Amino acid sequence: DKVAIISSGFEGAMISAAALLILYDAVHKAFTSEAIESVGIGMILTGAAAAVNLVLGLSLLRVGKKRNSPVLRANGEHVLADVWTSVAVLAALGLVQFTGWRGWDPICAVLAGGKLLWTGWRLMRESFGGLMDEADLTVEKELRDLLYAGCATHQLSYHNLRHRHSGRTHWVEFHLVFPDETDLHHAHEIATEIEAKVASLLGDDVRVISHLEPRSAEHQEERWELR
Ligand SMILES: [Zn+2]
Ligand SMILES: [Zn+2]
What is the structure's pLDDT at 185? Predict the structure, then answer.
């Protein structure tokens, strides 16, 4: 739901901010050869993110296999790949403790910061995608209300509503079912009126296509429809 989506976007923003701090710290301290304290924070954040991703990735894989969903499985594998890079970063950070060579500090800080920045950016992007999907659901609900009202006025029904957008352009498609005896001229008039209402609901850049059919032929030769 929306709260989860926004909170994962917020999480992404926080992680990105932390990553930028670490990167700034690393670059700054590299020139002043001071110790980098933020590496510790970076390790904790990276470790925590890896643990969360491990649980998430494994459960996505499990559900994906159970539901036979390649999309879920791909997401799970993607998340797990994230875990391995986190582990690699943590291992690199561990070298600092063992070798004690100061030179590792900025290298590891940049690694951890870069990794976190990537994770944060991905979270924000996915959250944005989620919000777009939510917006589509809202648009679809409004379209259904409008079509329902328009059909009720003229004793029609509709089916096969489809809506998608690319960029700012909305594409809407639906079928209108008229009583058999309706005059074509009249049917076209009503369809045009409903199309205009749909277009004005969605703004400037809209393509609306309606398909007209008589009640007696509804679904007869349209078995390909996804209703
Ligand atoms: Zn149809
Ligand atoms: Zn026309």
Answer: 96
Give me the long-range contacts of 103-110 (CB less than 8 A, separation at least 24).
105/26, 105/29, 105/35, 105/36, 105/39, 106/26, 106/27, 106/29, 106/30, 106/36, 108/39, 109/22, 109/23, 109/25, 109/26, 109/29, 109/36, 109/38, 109/39, 109/42, 110/23, 110/26, 110/27
Percent of the chain surpassing pLDDT 90: 24
Amino acid identity of 29? Answer: K
Is the pLDDT at 1 greater than 60? The verdict is no
Gap from CA of 203 to ligand 2 centroid (Å): 20
**How far away, in angstroms, is 205 Cα from ligand 2 center?**
18
Going from N- to C-terminal start, the domains of the chain cover 2-132, 154-217
Q: How far, in Å, from the CA of 219 to the mean position of ligand 1?
A: 6
CA distance 37 to 75: 34
Ligand number, closest to the Cα atom of 208:
2
Which residues are in the CB-under-5-Å shell of ion ligand 1?
175, 222
Written out in words, the top-level CATH class of the domain with range 154-217 is alpha beta
Q: Closest-lying ligand to the alpha carbon of 194?
A: 2
Q: Are 27 and 54 in contact (CB under 8 A)?
A: no
